[in-house]
Task: inverse folding
């Protein structure tokens, strides 16, 4: 059998991690976090983006995309439900921040729990009736939900309709770290912190009961139900946790952008985030992070072909999906591991 | 609130039927591909958009009509309209085959996960839309008025315009022909066989690749015809019109029971009427919301559509 080690970044990474003892692991983790934290200072290198400010690009789209892709990955990757309306939760978070930020005196960190709460509530309300549907049908219902949220916001007066909401307050300073418009390093570090928290949450959940339930549901929902897994309950949990991450991303985005309008929450965002997940490697956290980084970053990096960048983007999606249908860093194939064990025994 | 609806009931009804027939033809593109592949053809909205440009290019660049020129009459009118229709169908049909070839074929042969195929289709649909955006410099394109919108007669206070009459009659004929093609021809039989059971059809000697390409082609032809009628009625197109029309047509397909050709007919008409009535009662800005709410309700309470087979149980 042909062993293809030369392109297998995933196994290389997994072996490195598994071969390391605890102090080494801590060192690897801290080292990588430190390197990622230094990213905003690399603006002068080949990484620079020609038109948009480099440190702003790192926050949005890159950072926010990674965060949202991780959230969507809980729904699509872990429990196998196709959600095309993920932008709705992002929008709910963003509008919570915008409305509460301009009408009450609360700051970003105080509004964050509300944004997450409302997004989760929306997740439960949508999930309870719809999660009985499967596959493409669920995809279409969620797509419809995403559009309904956008259209309601667009056509209502409390949201100032198409004009959007301006003058959203920035987050208050954290000690010596100041949030500034022209220097978004602090925003980036906040996003990275949120991403790390999300990754930690997903990793904890994955190895425990919910993670096993999601895995069972993803592989065969009927079998899972027969084995006594309360599938609806865990599906709603997965949906709601995904919504929470989306809502958090929305709060942060509104607070960073200072202005939001309905046109920022179109179906395209849902599709982009889903593309990040599938492109990077559905179900695999690191694949999703890589995919979202590339897809968030690529359009801004190739701005020199400015007008055609979305065309290139679409073409890249088609080509990559055709040649690596499991994504750039696919999830570990359990079967592969089992076969290996049997051969060794 | 309901005054407008009651006041203009019959003219709204006629507009709704014309719109409904456009939806019927687009939803054929969705429903046929779904029947064979069990997958939503995400690029169908862009196939429709390309189809509308077929008509615009024909009347503007082949017959040299402009915004200010006199509308055509008599035999010339028939010639221009038929050429435009065929052109739209051709453009959309070829686009559909192209989509199948580029985005679906390789992944289908590999038999990989459905999500990869979905993303691949989304990719091609972004690319198609972007190509058109670059070609038209993001501007809306008005179509020259070839067909004068003569008021033929008045029924119950509603004006019957020539363009709506042509749309309704011609679309009905095209639908009928396609339906007969699926029912009676050898290829149509093969398409139905594949949608019932792919493996069994293959064992019976059906050439799967040819069937799938033909399905995309026929779906594309129907969608392209819808593009022609859209231009005839609305006389305007843009690179991004595909999404709204595509979503509505997809809703129509689901409403009638996706995978079911007659279902698409009733679904399309129902949705066209519903949309027009809803705009009259609630205002046009809530039109799209109505469409989505209908979609969600149908999926919740009648997931197989009004005429559909039990999709959830037939899927392996």
Result:
């Amino acid at each position: 059998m042909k062993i293809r080690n030369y392109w297998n970044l995933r196994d290389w990474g997994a072996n490195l991690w598994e071969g390391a003892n605890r102090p080494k692991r801590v060192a690897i983790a801290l080292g990588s976090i430190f390197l990622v934290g230094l990213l905003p200072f690399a603006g002068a290198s080949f990484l620079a983006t020609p038109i948009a400010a480099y440190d702003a690009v790192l926050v949005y789209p890159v950072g926010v995309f990674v965060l949202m892709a991780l959230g969507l990955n809980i729904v699509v990757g872990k429990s196998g439900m196709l959600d095309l309306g993920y932008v709705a939760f992002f929008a709910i978070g963003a509008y919570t921040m915008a409305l509460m930020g301009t009408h009450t005196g609360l700051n970003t960190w105080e509004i964050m729990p509300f944004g997450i709460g409302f997004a989760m509530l929306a997740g439960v309300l949508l999930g309870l009736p719809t999660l009985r549907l499967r596959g493409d049908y669920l995809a279409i219902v969620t797509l419809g939900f995403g559009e309904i949220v956008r259209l309601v916001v667009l056509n209502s007066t409390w949201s100032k309709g198409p004009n959007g909401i301006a003058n959203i307050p920035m987050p208050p300073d954290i000690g010596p770290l100041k949030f500034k418009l022209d220097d978004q390093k602090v925003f980036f570090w906040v996003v990275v912190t949120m991403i790390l928290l999300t990754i930690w949450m997903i990793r904890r959940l994955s190895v425990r009961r919910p993670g096993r339930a999601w895995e069972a549901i993803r592989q065969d929902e009927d079998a899972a139900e027969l084995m006594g897994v309360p599938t609806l309950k865990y599906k709603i949990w997965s949906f709601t946790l995904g919504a929470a991450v989306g809502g958090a991303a929305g709060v942060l985005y509104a607070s960073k952008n200072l202005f939001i309008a309905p046109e920022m929450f179109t179906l395209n965002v849902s599709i982009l985030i889903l593309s990040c997940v599938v492109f990077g490697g559905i179900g695999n956290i690191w694949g999703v992070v890589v995919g979202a980084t590339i897809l968030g970053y690529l359009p801004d990096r190739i701005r020199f072909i400015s007008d055609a960048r979305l065309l290139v983007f679409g073409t890249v999606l088609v080509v990559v999906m055709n040649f690596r249908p499991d994504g750039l860093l696919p999830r570990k194939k359990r079967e592969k591991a089992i076969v290996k064990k049997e051969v060794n025994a | 609130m309901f005054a407008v609806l009651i006041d203009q009931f019959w003219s709204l009804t006629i507009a709704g039927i014309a719109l409904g027939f456009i939806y019927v033809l687009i939803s054929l593109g969705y429903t046929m591909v779904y029947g064979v592949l069990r997958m939503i053809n995400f690029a169908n909205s862009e196939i429709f958009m390309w189809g509308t440009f077929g008509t615009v290019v024909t009347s503007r660049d082949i017959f040299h009509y402009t915004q200010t020129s006199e509308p055509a009459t008599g035999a010339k009118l028939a010639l221009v309209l038929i050429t435009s229709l065929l052109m739209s169908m051709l453009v959309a049909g070829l686009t559909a085959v192209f989509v199948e070839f580029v985005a679906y074929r390789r992944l289908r042969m590999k038999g990989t996960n459905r999500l990869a195929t979905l993303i691949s289709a989304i990719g091609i649909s972004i690319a198609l839309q972007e190509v058109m955006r670059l070609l038209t410099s993001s501007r809306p394109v008005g179509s020259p008025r070839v067909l004068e919108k003569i008021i033929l007669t008045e029924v119950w206070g509603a004006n019957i315009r020539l363009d709506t009459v042509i749309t309704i009659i011609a679309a009905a004929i095209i639908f009928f022909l396609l339906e007969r093609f699926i029912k009676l021809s050898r290829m149509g039989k093969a398409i139905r066989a594949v949608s019932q059971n792919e493996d069994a059809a293959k064992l019976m000697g059906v050439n799967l690749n040819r069937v799938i390409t033909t399905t995309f082609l026929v779906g594309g032809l129907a969608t392209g015809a819808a593009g022609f009628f859209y231009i005839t009625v609305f006389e305007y197109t843009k690179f991004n019109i595909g999404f709204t029309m595509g979503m509505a047509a997809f809703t129509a397909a689901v409403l009638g029971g996706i995978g079911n050709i007659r279902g698409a007919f009733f679904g399309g008409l129902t949705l066209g009427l519903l949309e027009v009535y809803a705009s009259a009662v609630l205002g046009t800005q809530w039109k799209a919301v109505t469409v989505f709410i209908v979609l969600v309700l149908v999926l919740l309470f009648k997931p197989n559509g009004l005429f559909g087979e039990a999709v959830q149980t037939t899927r392996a």
Chain A has a mean pLDDT of 84. Chain A touches chain B at residues 76, 82, 129-130, 133-137, 139-141, 143-145, 147-148, 151-152, 154-155, 267, 271, 274-275, 278-279, 282, 307-308, 310-311, 313-318, 321-322, 325-326 (CB under 8 Å). The two ends of chain A are 18 Å apart (CA to CA).
